[in-house]
Amino acid sequence: MNSITENHCQKQKVLNLLDSADIKYELIEHEAMYTIAQMTDAGLTEGYCICKNLFLRDYKGQNHYLVILLKDKKADLKAIEEKIGSSRLSFASERRLFQYLHLQKGSVSPFGIINDTDGEVILIIDEDLKNAGKVGFHPNDNTATIIMEFTDFIKIINMFKNKIVYFDFL
Questions:
Q1: How confident is the model at residue 133, as a pLDDT?
Q2: I want to staple 73 with a disulfide (CB 3.0 to 4.6 A). Which of 64, 138, 165, 169 is the partner?
Q3: What is the pLDDT of residues 1-16, one digit of tens each?
């Protein structure tokens, strides 16, 4: 299966999940977006919070983390290491991204956990998102953005086995 077909299947899987859970959302289709700067330039960041999504691993590659933080914040890896009791966090490889979340580089999204059937990936979520209202994420496909209430996003996340850690990013 080529990457375009795979991305479309991933997107449809997310949309089906949201529909089956009666979650209200808005879907915006657009050109492939790889960075927040591209989304801003295309006018796709108004009226909701955009997040950075980083897929990390620990030094030994035994633990994997999906970090979700507001677009203007910095991910202080040392502070995260202290909070979660891990050592030497680094970005996970594309191979690991696909192995755990079935995602490709440029399409990292918290909705990737729908593919993590064993709940191995730990989500580290920006504490400030609790008060964010509407948030926007790719539906595992960077040619679209789903806008939804953060509380509904958490309802979806809680349907899976993944541990959630809230973190106060500066």
A1: 94
A2: 169
A3: 556 566 678 999 999 9
**Contact in structure between 121 and 66 (CB atoms under 8 Å):** yes
In tens, the pLDDT along 52-95 reads 999 999 999 999 999 999 999 999 899 999 989 988 999 999 99
Burial class (CB in 10 A: 0-12, 13-18, 19+), 67: buried
User: How many Å apart are CA 141 and CA 112, to the nearest integer?
Assistant: 10
Domain layout of the chain by residue ranges:
3-167
Helix, strand and coil in the chain, % to nearest 5: 35, 25, 40
pTM above 0.70, yes or no: yes
CATH topology classification for 3-167: YbaK protein (3.90.960)
For residues 24 and 148, what is the distance between their CA atoms, to the nearest angstrom?
7
